Amino acid sequence: MKKKFLKKYSIILCAGVVIISAIELSGNMGNHASAEMISQNVTDTGFTTVLGSKTVSGTVNTKPVITAGGFTGSKTVSGTAAPGATVDLYATSGKVTVTADEKGNWTANLTTGLTAGNIYAWSALNGQNWIESDQVTVKQDQTSLKVKDLTYHVGDKINLRDGFVSMTDQDGNTTTTIPGNTSFNDPNGLHDNIPGVYEITYVHNGITAISHVTLLPNVTLVAKDSTIYTGQNWNMADNFSGTVDGKPLDLTKGKISGTVDKNKVGVYPVTYTYEDQSKTVNVTVKQDQTSLKVKDLTYHVGDKINLRDGFVSMTDQDGNTTTTIPGNTSFNDPNGLHDNIPGVYEITYVHDGITAISHVTLLPMANTKPVITTGRFTGLKTISGTAAPGATVDLYATSGKVTVTADEKGNWTANLTTGLTAGNIYAWSALNGQNWIESDQVTVKQDQTSLKVKDLTYHVGDKINLRDGFVSMTDQDGNTTTTIPGNTSFNDPNGLHDNVPGVYEITYVHDGITAISHVTLLPMT
Fold this sequence. Notes:
The protein is mainly β. It contains 1 helix and 48 strands.
């Protein structure tokens, strides 16, 4: 605003009274008449001025000054003026009128924040002319506060000042040192080592910024590669384990990335993440080559049954073959099979989830070749042998045929009416309608069994040993021994060991052959 002031004047100062004459004020002053010249020429704070016919008394008005609030967005503008002066602030949003306090300070509160442009103020006091301030250019407010998120583990030393990165003032001056008047909260739980995410609000000069502080547990994560075979389920516990603050890790609380196709051969990377810990492993899926081969079995009633005989071979998952049945292979043992009930039984072998079926056929007891075991010597009337249990046996002896039945153990005995004579004997057996089977022929030999003893003489009081009466013996084939066999029996007559003199008869018996020895006991000499 252009103002034109006093052209000529005169001043008379007398006893604190100033008389101004011939004052000319000109120029466009608007609604604000200026008393600038007066304030420039009178320095006393108390005065009386006569202006024309008007007299003004009191404090001199002074030029207002805008001291704060010259930035965009500000809703508060402050400054100084003469104490008690009326101040009209012309902000970018319009005029606001305030009054300077007793110290000359004033603050104008705006309804709308400042925008780019100029602001200025006028002040008036005690009816004196209005005085205008210097204009202030509203600057872009460059105030900023930059923080960062923080991560700690339980037990770490926590310093929330570390969340501060930098700040700029209104003029754009930057500092990376956190000012002492910057405040921030310290939430409950953070220093109690309770894992979680905490929100820290930093405040400086009315600017706020939020840092998220993550407090993590102490995690130890262990990982290893693994191999499975097609069709098998993959379990992450086969690859991952660990601890959280010293306690076992609950794997279900972590995150798995990556998939395993159990039906497709390949190598699958899988990553497990728990909090800030992460491990990656390779899960290899191989073709499962497991196989189990068995065979059918056939037995007859009475045979010794071993179901392990049905196993032929097996291959493991990697294709390695064994012909020895593993100890962990299971198989069922059906009712009736060991009860000798003929039929076809199904045996299921199971190994590592693989099954194979063997059919076991149990046939009626088989006929077997009969065997003549005793009765090969002339004169015998009893012939014994073996055959299938329950088999019919036809014995053809030198005197004719005799038919008998083998007992449950397969033993049979044929009693002849006439003793055997020189020649051959043989037998036929039949069972359950099966074909007759002939035994080997047996040649009947002359029985050469003999038992030779001698008489003995003792005196009363002598030591008596009746075995001394044995001389020798021959078996049926004529083989001779001079040592008395253990199965040779002899009697011990009454009186002999009572030292009663006399002649005693001792009968020796071996394999049905008897021989008599006379023992004479003489009086003591």
